[in-house]
Every structure is written in C-alpha cells, then in structure tokens.
Specification:
With about 350 residues, the chain is of the alpha/beta class. It has eleven helices and 20 strands. Helix 1 crosses helix 11 and helix 4 packs across helix 10. The two termini are about 25 Å apart. The structure holds zinc ion (2 copies). One zinc ion (ZN) binds next to helix 4. Belongs to the zinc-containing alcohol dehydrogenase family.
C-alpha cells in the first residue's frame, strides 16, 4: 500500500507549511501510525521561530512533532501486542540498544539515538505532525481505551519531567524551586509533588504562567520580571534544597546558582542557548552545588502512560487550546503567546 501524508514541515524560521509527502510501501520492521493527537512542545516553538533549538540546527526541511499518539494503520513487522486499529502513544526515541550507554541502562544518552522531529542528527529524523508516519514497534506503547489520545500524547513531556525528578535524587521532604512555569515546569511541579516534596516555589517573568502554577498548587509564586531580589529574600528565609532550571536561560541558571542552598542540587532541564553563556559558575564550587543535566527520558515514558491512565497525573489540565493538525502553523503561533497558552494540542480534525 502506498500513501502520502500531510505534514507540518519547517523550511526556515517562521516558515512552516502543510506539505504532502509521498510515503513508500511500509518497510520491513516498521509500523505505520495514523495521527491522533499531538502536543506542541517548547522545542517545536524554538524550531519554528529560529529553525534551531540550542545546538541543533535545521539543515533540511523538518517535519516537527514528538509528542504524538495515534492508531496503528499498518504493520510490517514482528510486533507482539500491536494490531491494526490499536491506539498507541509513540515514544519519539529510537535508541540502538547496544552502545555502552544503552547497555548501562541510560538509553536516553545512546550514542546512536534518533529522536522524532529533531535536528540533533543529520539526516534529521522526521517528526509526527503528519497524518501518517512510520515507527518501530518498540516506539508504540498501547494506550488503554479510557485514555483520550490527546492525554496519551502528553506522556512525552510528562516523561521528561519524571526523568528530571529522578535526576534530582530523593526529593521527599525537600523544598524545591522551579525556574520557568511553562508545561515542563508545571509537569515537573506535579511530578515532584508526587515524589513527596515539602514545598515548592515557581519562578517566572510572566504573570499568566505563574497564575497557572498557583492553581496547580505551587506554594510560592515569584515574579522576577523586575529582578530577583524578592527571590533571594525568599531563599534566605526558607532555603531551596533543589532547583529545577526549566527556562533554558542564562538568567534562570544564574538565579538557580545564586539561590539554591549550600550543598544543594540544580537539575538543568531547559535547553540553554547554544555555545557559551555567562553564568556565575564559581559558586558551583564554593557552595558545592551538584549541577546535573537532564536530557529527555528513558523508561519513564511507560511510567508516564501508566500515571496518565490511572489518574496519577492529570495532564489535560494543562491544555489551553486544541487545533486541527491542518492548522499547525497557526497553532504554533498561538502556543508562542504565553499570555494565552500553556499547552496547545493538535487533533486529527
Ligand atoms: Zn517535548
Ligand atoms: Zn545506544
């Protein structure tokens, strides 16, 4: 069966077009997925605006999208547990399974990993903002009938946050601070609450995302649009054991270094600008800060599906708008407006 897919394809900064892509016959070992729902991620927005995110630069037209759920349309593989018509969340990671990092159980650091809708490798691996796309069976995680596909699509960002909380170590009973109140900051807050934190502070420069964090139960809300003196006062009164830097900005990281307690931990989740950035790094030494990166996720993807299915984390409370896939370019513009949007979800029609 040959087919074609209509896909949100990025040609350059702010140049995203719905383009028909021919699909050949399904290759051996592959599963073809019919689009069901997708989340628009911060990295999709970075690609859309700048045709790059961090150090990853778009060199060829790139179909965006890596927070995807859909239905199995065709199978040309040994795929136990999968059948045509099955509803699945699609894990955007395709790791090799045999490099040193894979063998030590850190597949997100695989030397040969491909990730959907990412320019991290060349040729780029195309993404899932497409009416049809292909995946390997291991990427397809069945979704229980009662879980809407738009919720299943958000397993990916939740997995990112579960991984970040795991990277922080045991945070039960600890006080945390999060820099950046977008979807990843908010889901990290929810994941950290599940892990038993004592209290939380959410830091941002925009009022609407901060108000959202207050509704989700952040204990302290700190607007640093006019500087971080208030944050420093708060940290002096009630110190932060763990900081999650989600904003991906030099200012956010500088504030994290300045306000986490001596001997505290910083988890870097946000994608910082590529190249070198100025930060007061000497304090990492003087305060014995554990500064840890957190990149994507590994087995947390399956945990995220289970948590969404059993109601442990209500990801749909983050969804502020739904738009059909065919309107992806406008949906990205809407997602970029932080005064109106937390999570924008694309649907099949
Ligand atoms: Zn994402
Ligand atoms: Zn590997």
């Amino acid at each position: 069966m040959t087919a074609s897919a209509l896909a949100a394809t990025l040609f350059g900064p702010e140049d995203l077009r719905m383009i028909e892509h021919p699909l050949g016959p399904l290759a051996p070992g592959m599963v073809r997925i019919r689009f069901g729902a997708a989340g628009i991620c911060g990295s999709d927005m970075h690609y859309f605006r700048h045709a790059r995110t961090g150090d990853f630069v778009v060199k060829d037209p790139l179909i965006l999208g890596h927070e995807i759920a859909g239905e199995v349309a065709e199978i040309n593989a040994d795929a136990p547990g999968l059948k045509v018509g099955q509803r699945v969340a699609v894990n955007p990671s395709r790791w090799c399974g045999h490099c040193a990092r894979c063998r030590e159980g850190r597949a997100n650091l695989c030397e040969n990993i491909y990730f959907m809708g990412s320019a991290s490798k060349y040729p780029h691996m195309q993404g899932g903002f497409a009416t049809l796309f292909d995946a390997v069976p291991a990427q397809c995680v069945p979704v229980p009938d009662h879980v809407p596909l738009k919720a299943a699509a958000l397993a990916e960002p939740l997995a990112v946050c579960l991984h970040a909380v795991r990277r922080a170590g045991d945070i039960a009973g600890k006080r945390i601070v999060l820099f950046g109140s977008g979807p990843i900051g908010l889901l990290t807050l929810l994941a950290a609450k599940r892990a038993g934190i004592a209290s939380s502070a959410m830091v941002d420069i925009a009022p609407a995302p901060l108000a959202f964090a207050a509704r989700l139960g952040a204990d302290d809300i700190v607007d640093v649009s006019g500087g971080d003196d208030g944050l420093k006062d708060l940290a002096a009164r009630n110190p932060f054991d763990v900081a999650f830097e989600v904003s991906g900005t030099a200012a956010g990281l500088a504030s994290a270094i300045a306000t986490v307690r001596r001997g505290g931990t910083i988890v870097q989740i946000g994608n910082l600008p590529g190249g070198s950035i100025p930060v007061p790094a000497n304090a990492i030494m003087a305060k014995e800060i554990d500064f840890r990166g957190s990149f994507r996720f590994d087995r947390e993807f399956d945990e995220a599906i289970a948590l969404i299915a059993d109601g442990g984390v209500d990801v749909l409370q983050l969804v502020t708008a739904e738009r059909p896939l065919a309107e992806a370019p406008d949906a990205l513009r809407l997602a970029l407006d932080r005064s109106r949007s937390v999570k924008v979800v694309l649907t099949a029609n």
